[in-house]
Specification:
By secondary structure, the chain is α+β, with helices and mostly antiparallel strands. It folds into three domains: 190 residues, Histidine kinase-like ATPase, C-terminal domain (Heat Shock Protein 90), CATH 3.30.565; 127 residues, Ribosomal Protein S5, domain 2 (2-Layer Sandwich), CATH 3.30.230; 200 residues, Ribosomal Protein S8, Chain: A, domain 1 (2-Layer Sandwich). The strands form six sheets. Strands 1, 2, 3, 4, 5, 6, 7, 8 and 9 form a nine-stranded mixed beta sheet that branches. Helix 11 packs parallel to helix 20 and helix 15 crosses helix 17.
Amino acid sequence: MDSMAIRRLDPVLVDRIAAGEVVERPASAVKELVENALDAGARRIDVVIEDGGRRLIRVTDDGAGMDADDLQLAVDRHATSKIPDSDLSRIATLGFRGEALPSIGSVSGLDIVSRPPGAAQAHRIRVDQGRKHPVTPAAHPFGTRVEVRDLFSATPARLKFLKSPRAEAQAVADVVRRLAMANPHVRFALGGDNLSGFDWTACAQDAEGLAARLAQAMGAEFRENSLRVDAQREGVGLAGFAGLPTWHRANALQQYLFVNGRPVRDKLLHGAARGAYMDYLPGDRHPSLALYLDLDPREVDVNVHPAKAEVRFRDPGLVRGLIVGALKQTLAGAMHRSASSGVDGLGAMSARNAAQPFMRTGWRPAAPGNWDWRASPSAPISGGLAETGAQGFLHEPPSADARAHAMPIEPQTLEAPLGAARAQVHDNYIIAQTRDGMVIVDQHAAHERLVYEKLKRQRAENGVARQMLLIPVVIDLPAADIERLMDNGEALAQSGLVIEKFGPGAIAVSEAPALIGKGDLAAIVRDVADALADESPSAPLERRLDQVMATMACHHSVRSGRRLTVEEMNALLREMESTPGSGQCNHGRPTYVELKLADVERLFGRR
């Protein structure tokens, strides 16, 4: 029975148990050490690792150092300078548990050298696998250097769970990147093997400085394709930058969230961001964003996770509502902006074409003896516009409708954001002329968004306008699809589609949205059934309604291949200008691309 007696654990074993919670991998140790440097007011932080952090982690800072007494206490469990008034409800620092240094020292060789401002010399302390050595004098400039060698060498079982050196190094880089994004005013440098190092200069403590740091961390393209977010609600502030819906990703790795300067991974915040972009992105794509929440420390509990990676809000509904509302308002405010038009890519293509003018198009010059100048599209003009056009189309049927070009331009339309329609190309793309460039519009994608927004507006005001069908449309469907449709009968009715069972294996549509008119109801209903199959039954009703209406909008929109009159083209452009979110279709694709005249001239080498 003696083996079952309760006894106190050995202090070193206690620290190693804590290390299992706080220091899961080298990246965890880096996070704790960099947070300590930030809490010490550092303006420059250098991180160096070897072998993914297993062999060496070195963090050097220029913050407020520690004297001999502080060093002695710093490696003791639960000794901290981060809670001066012992109030756990008002934590304003990043590290506060007092577990990081003793925990790291219990599973590695820990060496700390530090010198506070004004001190005549520095001091050093070493902790070797939990054994503390006495403090000794040392030489070091103002600030602190912490070295961690042979991490987990005292606990071989932990080493087995580490990934490859490259994977561990990438995790370290991600941690440093997130902390750098949270502190743009600090210079960050990272170096070592198995990673691409960086040295990011300090940025100003304003929106421009934050944008500059995000460009360093997420790439210059994010800065060009993002919108500034700035909102307040009931004492909670939200700032940062949100990527345009057309600038989407296959995963959520480019979503960075910060609470009171602390990088967090929080399901509530990620879910709120996803909800805000729901109208603009397909289900398998994710937005890029960096959002910063600022609120009273008493309104958020940062003490719910040993590694402080998760937080708990006192009023989660307020926080979620602020994020969703602010993002939706920001996206709607940029109703006509879509991702960069790719002028650089066009320029690269143009350069390649210039190098190999005939190889890319497949065209070969005819033998000189067979050449007939009259068959050339560049033949001299002899009979005016009509004859010139005929000369150009001797070999190919016309693929552009230039009727709009014959119409006089109203001066005010040139000043409009999307300009005046001048032609329709390949029966799907509208070419419009603006004062300083041109716009190419995908008519199907644009009209799809317009119909969707109109259906949503009708639903919000008085319900989607419906029309009774003289003869109900009967549609044969699999039993699973019928059950799914009937289960969502309320959502369908709110979206303007009234259905009922019609014997075994079929349903009847008795009413349809007036906006759809004589659309192919059978195809629409089948696609709606597929959309509902992709949607979770527990999803909010509004989300299911939006799915239904997005499907109907896609069917009703102007299809590719339909010739539009000049009036129809200009009406489409004007409606796009007055509709929120018209810069992208319901699938997250851009509805138009804008080319400034300067960009076009650059393609032709005029600039």
